[in-house]
């Protein structure tokens, strides 16, 4: 085992004798075994959150660089990873960005953040430019075609979040399962005519949710209609709310929380009571979903963890010597969080 880290003149810590910090130095400073440090930095989901945070802080304090990454410094790599998000103003992406940032920082990488503006063209052009400036790319909610995405993945290390095609490593939030939980929740409240307020036609998540929801509705013998598509922003909620009222459905499941929050605002303006007249369910559990009036019933997902896992999967491609086998896919569970925007189905006159 290496000697304990020593204190530098500026109050920081370094490895003994001025040598680069080792995994044993990080372990000594954080009070855990070296094997725990290895797991925390390579597969963070296997380590307790508080322990992982302590290890990451120690690694940052010691400026610890894993062996494989140290070799990369002289290999011409940029030590930068790009994270592309479809809309940086959407709170859904905040936790993904935080997860990728923390995981990349712990591994000694810089994060390059790009807003692709829900545009396939911007996404393609950005990836082409990044081939010279980044070691790898994480795509969130990519709008690329399957062929374009597969071609990009063949050119450089790449991981997608919420997009699934053969041959491209991906992290999936299992929102279809929780969307079906939302359907069962509404059925238990007496709703039999339900609407799905769809998101962008180019969204893979939108397609997956609708396919799961329509199949589940058929099995359960209830009617679910698809309305939209609607842009995944709050201002689209007004049109979505009007469409829902016009459809005659007593409940709506929105593509995301932004649409759902806009719906709540529009329904209130129209004098339609939620949940007495209509029930609303969102998706993503963004910051503020529980501050709505009424608080929003929504699908909750481990979004920050998705960002961390995506980084781990990407770094295993960039640095095969890290000791972790590259994974082709990781599916993270979700669940329904029930709040005040859903209630018993209203009694309609015959």
Automatic annotation (TrEMBL):
Q: Is Transcription regulation there in the keyword field? A: yes
Domain HTH lacI-type residues, every copy: 21-75
Entry's Gene3D superfamilies? Answer: 3.40.50.2300, lambda repressor-like DNA-binding domains
State the Gene Ontology terms under molecular function. Answer: DNA-binding transcription factor activity; transcription cis-regulatory region binding
Key words, A-Z: DNA-binding, Transcription, Transcription regulation
**In its UniProt entry, what is this protein called?**
Transcriptional regulator, LacI family
The organism is Arthrobacter alpinus
């Amino acid at each position: 085992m290496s000697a304990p880290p020593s204190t530098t003149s500026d109050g920081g810590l370094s490895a003994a004798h001025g040598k680069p910090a080792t995994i044993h130095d990080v372990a000594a400073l954080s009070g855990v075994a070296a094997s725990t440090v290895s797991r925390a930095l390579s597969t963070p989901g296997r380590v307790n959150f508080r322990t992982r945070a302590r290890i990451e802080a120690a690694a940052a304090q010691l400026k610890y660089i894993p062996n494989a990454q140290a070799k990369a410094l002289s290999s011409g790599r940029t030590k930068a990873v790009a994270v592309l998000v479809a809309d940086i103003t959407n709170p859904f992406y905040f936790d993904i960005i935080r997860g990728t940032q923390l995981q990349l920082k712990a591994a000694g990488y810089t994060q390059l953040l790009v807003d692709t503006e829900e545009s396939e063209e911007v996404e393609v052009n950005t990836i082409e430019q990044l081939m010279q400036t980044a070691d790898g790319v994480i795509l969130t909610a990519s709008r690329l075609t399957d062929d374009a995405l597969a071609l990009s993945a063949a050119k450089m290390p790449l991981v997608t979040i919420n997009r699934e095609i053969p041959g491209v490593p991906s992290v999936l939030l299992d929102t279809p399962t929780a969307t079906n939980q939302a359907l069962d929740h509404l059925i238990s409240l007496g709703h039999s005519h339900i609407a799905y307020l769809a998101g962008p036609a180019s969204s893979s998540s939108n397609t997956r949710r609708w396919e799961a929801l329509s199949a589940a509705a058929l099995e359960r013998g209830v009617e679910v209609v698809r309305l939209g598509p609607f842009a995944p922003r709050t201002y689209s909620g007004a049109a979505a709310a009007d469409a829902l009222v016009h459809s005659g459905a007593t409940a709506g499941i929105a593509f995301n929380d932004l649409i759902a929050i806009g719906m709540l605002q529009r329904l209130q303006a129209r004098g339609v009571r939620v949940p007495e007249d209509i029930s609303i369910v969102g998706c993503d559990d963004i910051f503020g979903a529980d501050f709505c009036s009424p608080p929003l019933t929504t699908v909750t997902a481990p979004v920050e963890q998705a960002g961390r896992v995506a980084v781990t999967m990407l770094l295993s491609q960039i640095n095969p010597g890290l000791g972790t086998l590259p994974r082709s896919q990781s599916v993270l569970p979700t669940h329904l969080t029930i709040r005040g925007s859903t209630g018993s189905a209203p009694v309609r006159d015959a």
